[in-house]
Design goal:
about 400 residues; alpha/beta; Rossmann fold; formyl-coa transferase, domain 3; 2 domains; 6-stranded parallel beta sheet; 3-stranded antiparallel beta sheet; 16 helices; 13 strands; about 15% strand; elongated
């Protein structure tokens, strides 16, 4: 028995943020039923690269879930969805504010039908505010939250981040909020509507930069006020040489994060450098110190630096790309990567920090694979199910 074994989740989400939230809930034991459109299903299914004929990302995000097709553009599809929602504990909605209202399936109506329903509404900018109705993607959200603006290089526009911080952060905050709402419902007997915005989630990931901005900026070594949030200029955004990346002799990037004096001293002692603690303070002196460290790193190969890091406690690691990280011995020892058997072959999977071990997970569903089962579980008769499936097939054929 997993913690959420008796919890039923109706999932209207697509792509990354919402499916990540419901993946966490499914891993914890919840029954998660994806409601997909009859015209192609979740768009993520079709985005490359693919494994066994379907998106690798879709298969990572949707293990253990069921899929049902419903045409919410038709009255019978909307009526069926409303009946479904009355039998679930949680609804995850990632449409823009007002979309479900226009379909007659607004949060207020669904909660009136099912007062114990927890609606988790995940959007880019939130259910309220000036930008609530605006479209966006992860890059827009991290830009608006000030997260992107803290990233270098200082001499040009910020680089596009290597992962989707707002999408992932939004999904994780959804999972946390749902867990809290389930606990609150135990005490009150009533559900809730949760307003989670990906822009808000991104802002929460930028606490150090935000703290500097709210404090009015840091003080440089020469006593002048530094611009708060300067791109790539803060302690944790590339502003100091001991917390930065460098190329080894054989061209491999290495990440040094010797923020504390003891780690910086340890690195300097091993590398033959003066452990001057002003290196841990942003300022104009960092320009020359970065050049000096770059020259030091060019003096040894990646293997030599890895041997150095194994001998000295100094917060030094090689920079791995996703492909090499997948083969990393440490990650293998943590059993973070595993496979699921499916009719389409062995499907690679990623274990989250809360994914239980020893569970035989079902692979990500084929679009509509469980339509009959999902509807029957909600009390639909065979005749009702047949009629809905015929109506969906008719639209898909058009």
């Amino acid at each position: 028995m997993r913690p959420l074994t008796d919890t039923r989740v109706l999932d209207l989400s697509r792509l990354l943020p919402g499916p990540l939230a419901t993946l966490v809930l499914a891993d914890l034991g919840a029954t998660v039923d994806k409601i997909e459109d009859v015209a192609g299903g979740d768009l993520l299914r079709h985005i490359p690269p693919q494994i066994a004929g379907e998106s690798a990302a879709f298969q990572l995000l949707n293990r253990g879930k069921r899929s049902a097709l419903l045409d919410l553009k038709r009255p019978e599809g909307r009526d069926a969805f409303r009946r479904l929602a009355a039998t679930y504990d949680v609804l995850v909605d990632t449409f823009r504010p007002g979309v479900l209202d226009r379909l007659g399936l607004g949060h207020e109506a669904l909660c009136a039908d099912n007062p114990r329903l927890i609606v988790c509404a995940l959007t880019g900018y939130g259910q309220t505010g000036d930008l609530a109705a605006r479209a966006g993607h992860d890059l827009n959200y991290v830009a608006r939250a000030g997260v992107l603006g803290a990233q270098g290089p200082a001499e040009g526009p910020p680089e596009v981040p290597g992962f989707q911080a707002a999408d992932v952060g939004g999904g994780l905050w959804c999972a946390i909020a749902v867990l809290a709402a389930l606990r609150e419902r135990e005490r009150t007997g009533r559900g809730a509507v949760l307003d989670i915005a990906m822009t808000d989630a991104a802002l929460g990931l930028a606490l150090p930069s935000l703290a500097a901005a709210l404090a009015g900026g840091e003080r440089r070594q020469d006593g002048e006020a530094a611009r708060a949030g300067a791109a790539g200029g803060e302690l944790l955004t590339g502003g100091i040489a001991p917390y930065n990346t460098y190329l080894s002799k054989d061209g491999h990037p290495m990440a040094l994060a010797a923020l504390e004096p003891k780690f910086w001293r340890s690195f300097c002692e091993g590398a033959g450098l003066d452990p001057d603690l002003t290196a841990l303070v942003p300022g104009p002196h960092q320009i020359e110190l970065k050049r000096a460290l770059a020259a030091v790193f060019r003096g040894r190969t990646r293997a030599e630096w890895e041997a150095f890091a194994a001998e000295r406690d100094c917060c030094l690691e090689p920079v791995l790309d996703p492909r090499s990280a997948a083969a990393d011995p440490h990650l293998a020892s943590r059993e973070l990567l595993f496979e699921i058997a499916s009719p389409r072959g062995r499907i690679p999977q990623l274990r989250t920090p809360v994914t239980p071990r020893g569970v035989a997970f079902a692979p990500a569903p084929v679009a509509g694979e469980h339509t009959r089962a999902v509807l029957r579980d909600a009390g639909f008769s065979d005749a009702d199910v047949d009629a809905l499936i015929r109506a969906g097939a008719a639209r898909e054929a058009r």
